[in-house]
Amino acid sequence: MASISPDLIARRIRQGSGQEPPDLVVRDVRLFDLVTGALIDTDIAICGDTIVGTLDRYDGPNVLDGRGRIVVPGFIDTHLHVESSLVTPFEFERCVLPHGVTTAICDPHEMANVLGVPALRYFLDAASRMVMDLRVNLSSCVPSSPVETSGAVLMADDLTPLMNHPKVIGLAEFMNMPGVLSGAPDCMDKLAAFAGRHIDGHAPLMRGKKLNGYLSGGISTDHEATRADEALEKIRKGMIVLIREGSVCKDLAALAPLLTVETSPFLAFCTDDRNPLEIAHEGHIDFLIRSAIARGVPPLAAYRAASLTAARAFGLTDRGMLAPGKRADIVFLDDLERCTVSDVLAGGRPIAPALDQRQPIAAPGRNSVLLNRPATADDFMVPGSGTARPVMGIIPGQIITEFLTLDLPEADGQTLPDIPRDIAKVAVVARHGLNGNIGRGFVRGFGLRDGALASSVGHDAHNICVVGVDDADMAMAVNRLAEIGGGFVIVENRAIRAELPLPIAGLMSDAPFETVRTQLEILRAATRDMGVTLEEPFLQLAFLPLPVVPHLKITDHGLVDVGRMAVIG
């Protein structure tokens, strides 16, 4: 925790008690009381970055006219990967701060899986220069499983030197559930090193005694609940459930009925993965709030989840309410139920001039797409019989996949995609220069009629994942990613249809978020022309290689039966 001088404390006391004028007076606002849900006419007195007075009237030389607007605490995104916004932390905050997100808790494990400790250090250095308060949970599972090739390995000894950094909260989502339950030594070392600090969970579909054991390791939050009964069991067992609504994973509809005034101390909001296109169309945490309210959630419960519960769940006792002694993160609303954000103060500062004064730092990780050799069409042939083939089934809005067993067409000793039944090939190509692995399989649910889509964003090891119905197009897409340093590529009839370069670790653009948003729109239109029916096909593609989420996945080792954590083909 940052130290504070006695003189500053004395100054706050004088300004709050009226002995001297506040540094800033926010005049004439209606404070939404997170205790009772009342709207209270008030001024807000601010000393530096801290609120020192509410529920009273103040005068001072610097006044911000609230014009009778409603004010609420800054929103907290309790779990996300900045890399999944496809832009740098500095562009991320420029994108989400106008939506009222003043605090975000990130896990840099996407970049860490490519670069290791330098990725963590980059995020900590960036966070120290940002206007929003970006907090970091240190990545617990790099790699996330033993059935994939990652660019780095992080053990407990790699993490502990960083654990006391002022931007670090604790340990990030513990995805290796089998490792926790079996007492794997590396898992036990990490849990022991961070015992007594915050440890984030990742427990999709986990119930009963397995959940009891998992929680007994000191894990306290989870963002993977997809059903209300699952989430209720978790909060009854002491977890804080983070209701997720991202660009792919959309759990709000299922969990909103659980969010009431009574349960709001145990439920918070997160996005996990949300890109600039989705943010432009819908919003960020503000979208979760208004969507929850539209589904019948009481506004008091929704705004508590977005701020007070989130702050308490992660030990951020200096925020979450608009009250004396709390950080001056203030969101101005024109409409409470619609959560229409009109202005934001972050740490007592208007965000626009504060953003202009930042000094961003360069990101590491360029030229990180390292193929052992260029891909060829032959690399994507699948030999053998098409009888009773395992096939991944896409579930729109979920990262969970079905484990299907289907008969597929075959010719000349090769198993083929089945376009009329919406079954395409999928492959994962190792891209960290450590081996030449290629895992091959089939997936149903993209709607692809021809061509190929390829991405260097492939959670969590971030090898290249490619889906297609033409082997030569698949090879061209993979090779193009190596040429541009990573990103998204669409190939059709041996020609590049569209692409989005992500040269920073193959995960992030160095362009403004507006440019990324426009490129995503072009990509989306191109995929629709090729028959793709998924709203976010590249983000859906990115989760096919995630072998810690049920049921059937694919890595550079091959198809993975997640239930048995076994490579099956």
From TrEMBL:
Keyword Transferase: no
Pfam families (UniProt xref): Adenine_deam_C, Amidohydro_1
Record domain Adenine deaminase C-terminal: where: 398-564
Keywords (A to Z) from UniProt: Hydrolase, Manganese
Residues of the Amidohydrolase-related domain: 70-349
NCBIfam families: ade
Protein name (Swiss-Prot/TrEMBL): Adenine deaminase
Organism of this sequence: Gluconacetobacter asukensis
